[in-house]
Amino acid sequence: MENIKILFEYTLDLLNRKSIKYEFRQFASGAIMLDIWYKEKFYVIQFENFIGVSEISDDNIGFDTNPDEKFFNELEYKEKLDNITS
Fold first, then answer.
1. Predicted confidence band at 60 (pLDDT cuts at 50, 70, 90)?
2. N or C: which terminus of the chain carries fewer CB neighbours within 10 A?
3. What single-letter DSSP state applies at residue 63?
């Protein structure tokens, strides 16, 4: 996706407006890992040449560089983000 940085900023803006706790780390490669805690759930969103979303839970305790879902479409990602933050 061309607009990864814009979608990252969009995500932070949404989280800030909804007062949702998050932390992120940017890597030398340009990848960004964003941790989100909301409604007793924990999500990891990775921003690379795609956007990856994983929900970490008792059933899915491990996290690696392979996300549960990959998004290459801006609208599909925004719909997923809305589901996470609603």
1. low
2. C
3. -
